[in-house]
Amino acid sequence: MAYDADVIVIGGGLAGLAATAELADAGRKVILLDQEPEQSLGGQAHWSFGGLFLVDSPEQRRLRIRDSRELALQDWLGTAGFDREEDLWPRRWADAYVDFAAGEKRAWLHRMGVRFFPVVGWAERGGYDAGGHGNSVPRFHITWGTGPGLLAPFVRRVREAAARGLVEFRFRHRVTGLGRAAGSVDTVSGEILEPSGVARGTASSRTVTGSFELRAQAVIVTSGGIGGNHDLVRAAWPARLGTPPEKLLSGVPAHVDGLMLKVAGDAGGHLVNGDRMWHYTEGIQNWNPIWAKHGIRILPGPSSLWLDAEGRRLPVPLFPGFDTLGTLDHIMSTGHGYTWFVLNRRVIGKEFTLSGSEQNPDLTGKSVRGVIDRARADVPGPVKAFMDHGADFVVEKDLGALVRGMNALTDEPLIEEEALRRVLVERDREIANPFTKDLQVTAIRGARKFLGDRLIRAAAPHRILDPAAGPLVAVKLHILTRKSLGGLETDLSSRVLTEAGDPLPGVYAAGEAAGFGGGGVHGYRSLEGTFLGGCLFSGRTAGRAAAKAVS
C-alpha cells in the first residue's frame, strides 16, 4: 500500500508549523491535519502576548542585565523541582532548551525576520532563595507583533512549501486513531467535520460528514493540551492543590480539548505528569469574549495589594508577578476560588498589561506611535475598556463604595470596610520612609532599580488611599486555565516513548502535547516565555528528526 505522504503532522499550531517547515526544508512531503478550519491556522499562539525566554540577549545587555546559561539553568531547575522517575527526559530537555535559549534561538528567529520590543520583562520573580523558584533577572522578551508576529514566518514557510507541492493542508480532519500496517505506526484515521466559516477561536461545528484514513512513514503529534476542556482539567487536578474551584475561566479556545492525547496513549504512547498544569491566578472575564468562558490574564506590576476573598493580604512572597503556582496553592487552601487586587488609578495606569495579542493592538500592529501613546496615556485604552465594561472591576472614589461594589460581585459579603481600611492604612504608613518592614514595598523599590520596570511597569511608591492617585479600583480575580505541563514522554529526538521506555515506532510529539519536550520540561512551574519557545524548539527537533528517519 502506497504512502500518502512522508510524514503526517497532527495539529496546525506553532509546534506543528515549526515541524512542518523543517520537514519541507528537508524535501519531505507532509500532510498537515487540523480539526479546526483554515482561519484558525496557528492555534493558541495567535492569541498570545508573544513572550519568549532568551538568555544573555542583546536586549538584556543594553539594559545592563547580566545573564548566563549557568544562571538560567539554576533558575530553571530551582523552578521545575524535578522529583520523579518520569523526570529523566524532562531534565535532559531542560538542559537542551536552556542551551537553545542561550545559544542559537534568537539568531535563528532573527534570520526569519522576528524582532523584539526593546524592554525586557521580568516575570515569575520568585522571592525565595537563590536556588528556588523564579527568574533571577528579566528574561521575558516580547515579540514585535506579539503572537501573530511570531507565527508569521512559520506560516509563510509552510505556505511556500505548499505552493511547491511539499505540504498539503487537511483542515476539519479530526484524528480518532493511530494504527500500524507493519511494525511502525503509519496509519492515521478519523472523522471529517463539516466546513465552518466561524471566526478564529470561535467554537466550530462538530458535525461529522465523512471519514478518512491516511498513511505515512512517520506521524508527529502537535495537538496541544487540555486547557479548553474543563472536565479533563478537573480530572487531572492534583490533590496537592486541593479541590478545583467551582468557576474556571478559559485562557484558550474550546478546541484545545486534549482528545488527541488519549488517541496517542491508546496507540502505545506513554503519558506522564498529567497532574502538572499551569493555570493563572489573575484571570478576568473578557467583556468582549471570543470563546466560551473567555478569560484574560492581567500581567501586573508589583504594587497592587493582593487580598484573599475575605480581605486578608496574601503571604510573602505571593506578590503580583512573583510565583503563580505558589499563589494558586495558597488560594486553593482558603476555601474560595477567587481573590482581589486593590489599587488605584495611578497603579492601574502604569502597571496593568493584559496578556494576549488582541489586548495589545499597538504591539500586535507594530505601531511605534501606538506604543508611545500607550506610555503617555493615563490608562491604556484596552485597560480602560475593562475598567468601563469589565464584570470584575469596581471603580469608586471612596472606600465604602468600593467595598459595597466588591461585595456585590460575590455570593457572600465577605469584605468588611473597617478591616480593609486597616490593611490599606497599615501598608500606606510604610511609604513614608525609605525603610520598611513590608516586603512588598521593598519589592516595589527593588523593581524600580531595573530601568525597564521604572519606565513602564512599576509605579513610584505612594499611598493607595492618596486621593490624588484615585479613584480606587478593585478587581476580582479568577483562576484561568492555560497550559498542560505534562504530556507524551519523548526522547531528545522527540520520539514518543512507550511505558517500557522504548520508542513507539514512527511516532513523534512536540509542543504542549509533549509537555513541550520530554513529557514535562517545566516540571511543576514555568519561568514564563517558555511555552512558545518550547513549541518552536520541540517542533523543530521533531521535524528534523522525522526528516532524517524517513527515506
Defining key terms:
8-stranded mixed sheet; 551 residues; single chain
Question: Mind explaining what this structure looks like?
Answer:
It is a single chain. The protein is α+β, with helices and mostly antiparallel strands and 551 residues long. Helices cover 33% and strands 21% of the residues. The chain has helices at residues 14-25, 58-62, 69-80, 88-102, 105-111, 146-163, 230-236, 259-266, 324-333, 345-351, 361-364, 368-376, 381-389, 399-408, 417-429, 439-447, 451-456, 531-549, and strands spanning 5-10, 30-34, 51-53, 140-142, 167-171, 173-180, 185-193, 208-221, 248-250, 271-272, 277-285, 295-299, 305-308, 338-344, 353-354, 393-396, 472-484, 487-488, 495-497, 503-509. The strands form four sheets. Strands 1, 2, 5, 6, 7, 8, 19 and 20 form an eight-stranded mixed beta sheet that branches. A hairpin with a 4-residue loop joins strand 6 and strand 7 (185-193). Helix 1 packs parallel to helix 18 and helix 3 runs antiparallel to helix 4 (88-102). The longest helix has 19 residues, at 531-549. It is globular and about 80 Å long.
> What's the story with the biggest beta sheet?
8 strands, mixed
Query: Structural class, from helix and strand content?
Result: alpha+beta
Report the helical percentage. 25-40%
Low-pLDDT ranges: none
What would you report as the Rg, rounded to the nearest angstrom?
23 Å
Number of helices: 18
Count of β-strands:
20
